[in-house]
Amino acid sequence: MIVCKSPLELEKMRRGGLLVWELLQELKSQVKPGISTLDLEQAAAERIRKQGARPAFLGLYDYPCVLCTSVNEEIVHGIPSRKKILKAGDVLKIDVGVEVEGYYSDSAISVPVGGISPELEKLVKVTEEALFQGIDHARIGNFLGDISAAVQQHVESHGFSVVRDFVGHGIGTRLHEDPKVPNFGEPGQGARLKEGMVLAIEPMVNAGKPGSRVLGDRWTAVTVDGSCSAHFEHCVAITNNGPWVLTRP
Ligand code: MG
Ligand code: MG
Question: Of 44, 146, 163, 216, which has the fewest beta carbons less than 10 angstroms from its beta carbon?
């Protein structure tokens, strides 16, 4: 069941959304060769606590951290580690969720570490563009498939592939609500978009093949062919005034 949110509920989600945006900007500014992904985890945990928010990922399905930090061929759900030291040329994905006043926010960015290759720069740029192509279709009367198709079309037109095994989702009083928001699909298919729906749209894009597998830690998803992957995510409310990106000023 897809739960639509009232304007008052959207205002609450907006507060969490901005908090997540500020947190990601802060973490991005700390990214440099030589730091570990655990350094970012510790900075994030402290900041979330100081803001009076609750980390959404910690403990959810027994996940052990507040951040997911996935590097290069890791697609999503990389676990922060002291042993994972960032180096120039890496592509780091930071994904974080918080709960504020009973409502969840969820957002992700891909961050180049030092200088990255032109091919990887293109991968990151196309993935972020695909997110905004999807967001532009998050309008009353459109279909879920319109968002999915817009993301897929943009990605594939640049020779990259969208991950099938992980998808976006509705969000609200739970981190993962209906509907699923795939990054592939057909225009005009799936649920009709209504005022008050909030969707976490999150293209995961591989430079090579779309396939993924999960490592022995039972969390980290990697590309099957070892190619690099990028990920961006925003929470978007469907409103009378068009798409409202809650996780960005
Ligand atoms: Mg996320
Ligand atoms: Mg999400």
Answer: 216
Looking at the structure, give the CATH architecture of the domain made up of residues 7-245: Alpha-Beta Complex (3.90)
Distance 171 CA to ligand 2 centre (A): 8
Q: For residue 200, give the ligand nearest its CA.
A: 2
> Which tens digit of pLDDT belongs to each residue from 70-82?
999 999 999 999 9
| Nearest CA-CA partner of 48 in 98, 4, 1 | 98
Phi, psi (rounded to 5 degrees) for 92: -105, 130
Confidence (pTM): 0.98
**What are 2's two structure tokens?**
């897809």
Convert the pLDDT of each residue in 135-180 to its tens digit: 999 999 999 999 999 999 999 999 999 999 999 999 999 999 999 9
Q: What is the dihedral of CA 106, 111, 113, 114, to 10 degrees?
A: -150
Looking at residue 222, its amino acid is: V
CA of 97 to the centre of ligand 1 (A): 6
Ligand 1 centroid – CA 181 distance (Å)? 12
